[in-house]
Amino acid sequence: MGYVTIKDIALSVGISVGAVSQIMHNKGRFSEATKKQVFQIADELGYIPDERARSMRMLDRHKIVGILTPDLRNPYFAELISKMEEDLNGLNISSLIGTSSESSKKQKMFLANLLGQRIDGALIIPQGNNAKDFNLLIQSGLPFVFVDRRISKLSKVPAVLSDPRPGLSDALKHLAKCGHQKVAFISHRCLESETVNAREHAFVELSSKMNKGRYSVINACRKHSYEELYAQLVKKNISAVICAYSPDAIELIRVIHQNGMLVGDKMSLISFDSIPVFEQMSPSVAVIDQQIGKIAKAGVAMMYKLITGEHLEENIVYVPTVYCARESVGLYQ
To answer: Do residues 80 and 147 touch, judged by C-beta distance below 8 A?
Structure first.
């Protein structure tokens, strides 16, 4: 009689060979009942792990992690991906990078393609808030971590997120100190991003503790032009804006300049996302910095623990934002 293999266990339990392998190596997400059944059948059949083969696999096969970003053209995501890739390389892990282009259809396509690759896990910046897009990934048992954004219905999936409150609180205090009477928060609900929406909620929460009459929320949406958005701000006598989404800030700065002004004069501006272009602009743009390096490092560390079978002390890690004052915030005129 030959040695019992994981294929024999898989046939007895009625699950895939891959699923048995992941359970044996403490990977994936399976019910306790399934895990118990696998180990019970393995014991009954007299399965003996081939440690020599396992050692050879660990030595021979380079680990690979898939990375999904919503938009590689967005400088913030480009830098975040670069930081994660750098940290993965430091652990001798390669990466496969794809983009959803803020499209649910493309997101599902890339996730399906990932499962066809020989990868060990995935770092995902999700598009939208549709949990169904991730059904196939969850069913496969592949370890994955949400970075920067998450899907609210998938609360059990490990995630690394930024906390918008610390940086936003300091930004509001700075605007008040500069004498700004009316401040608008430019949200972007069309993205259906839980992270971007959380910034709006934080603004409403923090500003409600100050003078309510001075603060308002305006939604930037694809069906409206930035010229219309700027006209709305002028009509409301807004003297300062905080943008939840950096591409909106860039477009709004363009319109302000087209109207013969510089940010920081009659209209001050602060944006989330500390991207290089904001520091290079003249005037330089004040930002609420998510600390990309820390987010990337925490996401990769969490991913590494999952693929090596280590215990996660925390399922969600929050990185505090930091406000960086620059020339785009001036005194109220």
So the answer is: yes
The rounded distance, in Å, linking the Cα atoms of 326 and 264 is 9
What's at 268, amino acid-wise?
S
The candidate with the shortest Cα–Cα distance to 147, out of 70, 92, 200, is 70
What digits encode the pLDDT tens for the residues 8-53?
Answer: 888 988 888 888 888 887 777 788 888 889 889 888 887 866 554 4
Q: What is the mean pLDDT of the chain?
A: 88
Q: Are 197 and 189 in contact (CB under 8 A)?
A: yes
Give the per-residue pLDDT at 117: 77
| C-alpha–C-alpha distance, residues 256 and 271, integer Å | 15
Angle formed by the axes of helices 292-308 and 75-90, to 10°?
40
Q: pTM of this prediction? A: 0.76
Confidence (pLDDT) at 167: 97
Give the number of other Cβ atoms within 10 Å of residue 125's Cβ.
24
pLDDT mean over 247-260? 94
CA pair distance 311, 296, nearest whole angstrom? 19
* Contacts of the segment 148-151: beta carbons below 8 A, 24+ positions apart: 148/77, 148/80, 148/195, 148/290, 148/295, 149/70, 149/125, 149/193, 149/194, 149/195, 150/126, 150/194, 150/195, 151/126, 151/194
What is the distance between the alpha carbons of residues 115 and 143, in angstroms, rounded to a whole number?
A: 11
CA atoms of 35 and 231, how far apart (whole Å): 60
pLDDT at 226 over 60: yes
Q: What is the pLDDT of residue 212?
A: 62
Q: Measured between alpha carbons, how far is residue 12 from residues 16, 71, 139 in Å? A: 10, 44, 20
Q: Are 241 and 226 in contact (CB under 8 A)?
A: no
Structure tokens at 86: 């750098």
Biggest CA-to-CA distance, the chain: 89
